[in-house]
Records
---
Amino acid sequence: MSDLFPAPNGVLLAELSRLLPRDALLRGGEQAEVMTSSEQLPDVVGETIRNGYTLAGIAVEWEDPGWLCRYVFYCATRSGFVHVLLRGEAGDQLPSISPIIFAADWPEREIEDLFEIPFEGHPLLGDFVLHNEDWPEGVAPMHPAYGASEPKPPRSERVWRPQRFVDAPGAFSMSVGPVYAGVAESAQFRLESEGEQILHAMPRLFYKYRGLEKIAEGQDAQEVLLLAERVNGTSAVGHALAFAQAAEAIAHVDVPPRALALRLVFAELERMRAHLSTIEDLVESTGLQVPTAMLAALVEDLLRQSGRAAGHRYLFGLVRLGGVAMDIGDTAAADIVKTTRLVIARLSRIGDQLAYDNGFLDRVEEVGSLHVQSALRHGVVGPVGRASGLGRDLRAVQPYGWYAGRDIRVALAKEGDAYARLRVLTAEAAESQRLLEATLDALPSGDVCAPWRPQAGAALGWSEAPLGGTFHWLRLSPTGTVVRWHVMPPSFTNWPALATAVEGSAFQDFPIILASFGLSAAESDR
Amino acid sequence: MWTTKGLARGLLTTPYPRATPADHGATPPLPIATSIGRTKAAVVDVCPTGALMLGADVVDVDLGRCIACQRCRLGTAPMEWKADQHLARHVSASSLPGKAFRHSLHVRVVDAGDGGETLRELKQLTSPYYAAHRLGIFFTPTPRDADVLLVVGPVTQGTRQALLDTYRAMPEPKWVLAVGSGAVSGVPFGPSFTSASGVGDVLPVDIVVPGDPPPPLAILDGLLSLMGRVPAQELRP
C-alpha cells in the first residue's frame, strides 16, 4: 500500500485513502492536499493527529459563492505538510475540530469572528478578535464585501461582561491590562482566584488588531512583504522569510545560494537578539536589577551590530522576493562574528551565575510548568515547546533555504518550567551564533538576488521565527497582487498554552511566567 | 556579588546630550533630501509609502511616512541616507512646558498597535547604554503621575478607548508624544477599517518622533527637547 504513496506523507496518505474516496487525494508529495466533507473531517483530522501531525493553522479563502477551508498540518518529526480541504456554501456550518485537537480552538474562534462562519460544537464563540464593546454586531472584516478602507465603525453600544469560570465562595476575577504599569504591549488577562492561587486564566487579546491580512488584499506582493516584516517587529526576518518563500514557490524562483546563506545569517542574528530580549525580560520579572542591566547591554550590542552591518537595528528591509537586499562584505562578516562571539561568551557567564543564585532559582524553578501532554494538545511551537520536550524545530524537521542539510542541534529540556525555557533560550542563542559563524566562514559566491516575476498561484511558506514555527499561506493574482494572505504566527499558537501554564500558580508568579513565554501580542493580533 | 559583576564592564552610558555619541550603529540612518542630479526622479516610485516627494531640484523626504524599508537606499539610483538623532519635531513651539520640567519628566507609555519594535526601543532607554533616569526621565505606572503620554502604534479600534481613558486620567499640564511612523502617520497600517492615521486623529499631539522604529537616542532627544534641554525643531507645515 505504501508503495502507492511514496514519502513524504506516504504513511498518512495510505491511512487516509482508507477513509476517503479515491478522488479525494488532490495532490501528493511534500505539500499533499486531500478534499474532505463535513462528515469525514473529524475522522480525517483524528487520523492525521494519530500519525504525528500537528495543526499549523486554518486558512479560509472565499471562492464565490462559498468558501474553501484549508486545515494545514505539518509533520513534527519528518518533512511533509498535509492540507485538509473542506468546501462549503455561504451559510453552512462547519464541524468544530477543537474537541479532537485543542490547537484548533483559537483558529476556529478567529474564523467565526472575522468571516462569520459558524462552528458547530464549539463551546466559546464570539468576542474574540472583534471585542463586543468596540465593534458593532454583524461586522465581518474578512468578508469580500467588506472594504479595507471602510470608515471605522462607531464604538459599539454593547457592554462586555467577562465570562466567569470559577464558581466558589469568595472567588473573584482580577483583570490585568490592557494598559500595563511598565513598557508593555496592550493585552488583557483575566485571572480568577479564591485567594492566592490562580484557578483560571483567560487571555483577552486582539486590542492591537491591525487587520493586516485584510489591508494586504489587492496590494502588490512587494509591498505586503513590508507588512509581513511588521507582523512582529522583533521577528521581522522570520516573517519576511516565510512570506518570501511562499511568493518564491508561487513564481518558481531559484534563490541564489549566497542569498540563502545571508538569509540564514540575518535570521540567526535576529534569533539571538530576540532570545536575549526574552531572557532579559524573564530576569527582570524576578527583580534582579544587575543581570537585567547586563543583559539589556548585550541586547543593545546586537542591535548596534545589526545597525552597523545592515542599516537597520531590527533588520527590516533585508529580505526581498528572490533573495536579499544587500551583500555582506568580509569586514562586516568579521565584525558580526566578533560581536556575536563576545555576546555569547558574556551570556554564558551570566547564565552560569544565575544557575547558582538561589533567590533566582526559587522564582523560576517549577514555576509555570507546561506538561508535554498539554504542550502537544495546544500544538505548542518554538522554544516554549522545546522546553517542554517537543523538539519540533522547523529548521530541522521542515528544513528550508540554507538550513537544508545543515547539522542543527535542537536544544531540548523536559521540565517545561520557566527555568527550562531560560536554559533552552540560552542554548539556542549559542547555537545561532555557531550556525551564523559557520555560514559566514563559508559564504558561497554569486548574486544575492534573483529576479522575481509575478505569477498567479498559491503556496505555503514557513520559517522558524525566534518565537517558533511561522506559516504564511499566500495566494497571488497574475499581476502579483495579494488575493489572500493568512499568517499563522507562533504567538497565536502559544498564547492559549500560557493560560494553561499559569493555572495553579500564585499571583506573584504570573509576570514571571508571562515573561518566560516571551510572546508577542502584535504578532498574535496581526 | 552581582554588583561587582555588573561593574566589570565599565561605563557604557552615552554622553548624550552633553556630547553627541559617535557609536556607529546606535542611530540607524534615514533618507535625507537628495539633489536630483545625484539620484533619479524615478526613485520616488520605489517608495512604497509615498515618503519621497519630487521637488524642483531635490527629492524631498517626509520622515513621518518613512518606514525605513531601505528600498531607496539599496536601489540602483540611491537616495542619500544619514544617521541623525534629532528626529523629533514640535507641532507648535508654544507647547513647550518651560523650566518647571527641566529636570524631571514622568512618562506614561501606551501601546496603540505597535509591531513591538518601538516598544523594544523604549525599553532600551532604561538600559545601561542610555539610562534615561540619569536625566530625570521616568516611566510611570500610573497616568495620575504622568506629565507626558507617549504613544506608539497607529491607534487601532481596540486600543482607542484605553488611550483616551489614559489621557483623561492625566492631570494638566500634559503633553502627547507620538513615537514611530505608525503613531506619526499611521503608515503602513492606516488609515484603514481598524487603524487611525496616527495618534493625531485621536489626541492633540505636541511632538512627533518619526522612524520605524526611532532609535532610543531619537526618543531621548524628543523627550529632552520637551524639557528644553536640547533645541526644539518645529514641524514644517
---
Amino acid sequence: MDTLNELMGGFAAAMTWQNLLFAFLGCLLGTIIGVLPGIGPVAGVALLIPLTLNLDATGAIIMLCAIFYGTAYGGTITSVLLNTPGEAASAITTIDGYAMTKLGKAGAALTIAAVGSFVGGTVATLGLVMAAKPLGELGLLVGPPEFFALMVVGISLLVALAGKSMVKAVISGALGLLIAMVGIDPVAGAPRFTFGMDRLLDGVSFVAVIVGVFGLSELLSYRKGTTTPNVHAPNLRSLLPTGREWRRSAPAMARGTGIGFGLGLIPGMTGSVSSLLAYGAEKKFSRHRNELGKGAIEGVAGPETANNSHANAALIPLFTLGIPASPTIAVLMGAFLQQGLTPGPTLFTEHSEIAWAIIASLFIGNLLLLVLNVPLVGLWTSILRVPTTILTALILLFMVIGAYTINFSVFDVFVMIGFGLLGLALRHLDIPLAPMVLTLVLGPLMERSLRESLEISQGDFGIFTSRPISAVLIGLGLLIIFSPLLKLRKPKALNEDPET
Amino acid sequence: MNTRSRIAAALAAASLIALTGCGANAGATNAAGGDFPKKGKTIDLVVAFSSGGAVDTAARLIQPILEKELGTNVEVINKPGAGGQIGYTQLTGAAPDGYTIGATGSPSVVVSPLDPSRGAKYTRDSFQPLGRQVIDPTVIAVQPDSPYQTLKDLLDAAKANPKSMTASTTGLQTGEHFAMAQIQESTGSEFAPVHFSEGASQATTAFLGKHVDILVANVSDVVDLTKQGKARVLGVMTSERAPALPDVPTFKESGYDLEAGTTRGYSAPAGLPDEVAKKLEAAIQKAIEDPAVVQKMQDLGLQTSYLSGEDYKQYWAGQEEDFKKVLPLVQKTD
C-alpha cells in the first residue's frame, strides 16, 4: 500500500507539464538519434547529457531515461526499413524485419515493434515497482559459474538456428567464436589473432560485422542477378498489422518480455544477448518457426520486446544496488552523480520523491514512445517510396556511414565490406548466418565467465555441476542440444515437423 | 533496372570513400595547435575501465568542466579490458593532436609495459602526463557475516590455510593484485585471486552475491557498501586513516607496515604541441580543483591530490622504479 502511495506521489511529480515536456522531448530526440546509424543508446545518452545539466534533477533524469529508450526504439526503424541496425541490440531484427519490408509489410513490423517495446518496458517497470529489492538480490545469485551456464543455454539455441544442416550451423557458430577471439586476451593481456594490427586489439566491431554479414552481403547477392530487390512501398492498409499478425505476436511478446526481464537483472549482460536469445527462442518454440527468416512477425516481436524489457529491467540493479548493469545504464549513473544523486538503496531513503518521480516517468515515457511512434510509422515507411535504384544506393550509403560512425574509423568500413564478402560466400555455401552472430555475441561473455569460474574453483570444473542454478541451466542447455536427436528416434509417421 | 541500381550503388560507394578520405585528411592537418581546440570538434576522453567504476566516475565528473574550459565537446569513451591495456593502447595509438586524451591510473599504466609477456605496445614514454587527480588507498573487506573481525584474524587464517579463500582483483597485475602480493610476501598469508578484468563493478557484484569471499578494492569502492552494511572493511593500506572510513584501522595500526593504492590522473599521447599541452593542462587543473568536483569526489571517498603534468611525470617515473622491484611477486603468485 505504501508503495502505491509513493508511486502516486511520483506520478503527481512527473505529470507537471514541464516534466511531461522533458519526457516527450527525450523520446523524440532519442528516436531521432536511434535512427541515425551507428549512434546507439550509449553514445546517444552521453551526447545529450550536457543538454540536461541546467535542468533540475528530476527533469534531467526523466529526460535522459526517455532518451535512453527512445534510442532503443529508433534503432529498430533502420533495421526494418534499411537492413542496417541502428544499434547492436536490434541487429537480429534485421533478419525478419527487413524480410517483412520486402513483402510490403514494413508498417506492420514497425507497429508491432513499438507495441512490443511498450509491453516489454511497462512490464519490466512494474517489476521495478513491485519487487525491486528481491529482484535485485536475485540478479546477484548469478555468479560467474551461473553466468557461464546461462551462456551454455544461449549457445545451445544454435541448434534452433541451424536450419537444414547441423554441420553447417556448427561451422557458422565456430566461425563466430573465432572472430570473437580477436583482440587482447581479457585476462592475460596478450594480443590474439591481431596480425600485428593495432586496430584489431579491440576486436572487430560487432555492428560493422552485422551490417556486413546481413546487409551488405544481401545487397551484393542482388548484384549477382539471382534475386532482384523486391521492396514494395506499403499501401495504407498494410501499415497496421492484421488480426492474424496481432495474434501471432502476442506469445512472442510474452516470451520476449520474460527473457529480456530475466537477463536484464543480471549485471554484465547486454541487451543484444536478450534480443538474440529471444530470436533463438522463437526459432525453437514458436508455432510458426519454419517461417522465421522469411518475414515472420515473431522475428520482430520477440527480439524487440526483449530488448526494451531488458533495458528497463537493467534499471533494477541500479536502483537497488547502485550497480550499472550495462554500458548505457552506466552513462545514466554518471548523470545521476552529476545531479548529486547516488544511485542505490540510499536513493529511496534520501531522495525518495525524486526516485519515485523517475519511476513514474518510466511508465509515462513508455506510453509516450508508443503514442509518438505509431503515427510516425507512416512517415518512416514513406522512405520506401523512393525508387529502388536510389534506395539501394541510399542503403549502401547508410551502411558505410553506420560502420564509420561506430568508432569514427575507416577501418570499420573495411571490416564491414570484408564481412559483406564473407557473408556472400556463406550464402553461396548455404551456411546459415544467425549461428555466427549468436556465438560472436556470446563468445566473449562465455570466455570471461568460464575463466572467472575456474579461478574461483581453482581449476575444478566441478563448480559448474555442484552449484544448483548452474547445474540446472547446463542440464537445460544439454537438453536443448540433444532434443533433435531424441526426435529423430521417433517413427517417421509421428514426426510432426516435416523439415527436421 | 538492375544495371541502374548497380551503377547507383557503385557511385554511392565511390563518393563515400572519397568523402571519408577527405575527413581523415582534415583531421590530420590541424595538429599545429594554435587554434586548438576547434569548436565543434569533439575531444575523446578514453577511460580504460568499464563505466561505473571509480576511474570512469571521476572522468565523467570533470567532463562538463573540461567542456566549459575548452569550449568544445568532450566525450568519455570506455575501452575496458586486459586491466586497462586495451584503453591505454588506444590512447597512445591516437594522434597527439589534443583531441584524444585519457584517464591514466597506476599501477595499471605503469606496470603493463614492464612485463614483456603482455605484449604492450606502449612504454612510459608513450604518454604525456597532464595532471594527477587522486590517490585511492587499497582496502580489504570481508562479507558482513564473516567470522573474521580483525585484519589479524583474517591474515592468520589465510596463513594457516593458504588459498582457502578467494579474493577479487580487477585483473592481473592491477593494484589489488599487487596489494595481495605485498601481503603474501611480508606476512605469508595467501589468498586465491579471482581476476575480474571488466573492472570494479563486476568484482563488487560478485562479492555482493557471495561468489568471492574477500573484496580487495579501493576506499572509494567500499564507502557506499559500508554504509549499507554489505561489507566489513578490516584494513586500509595507508599510513593514516582514510577520511571517508574513519573507523577502519590502517594496516600499520594492525601491525603490518604495508601501503598500497591506486593513483589516477590524465594524460595524452606523447608528442603534443606545447600550446595544446598547456591549454589541456590548465583546463584539467581547473576541473580537478573545482570545489564542486572536489566535494563530489570526497562524497565518493576520494581524496583530491593534484599534481601538475611535470610533477605527475616525476611521480610516474618513481612509481615505475618501485614496481619493477615487486613485479616478480605478482608474476610468481599467479
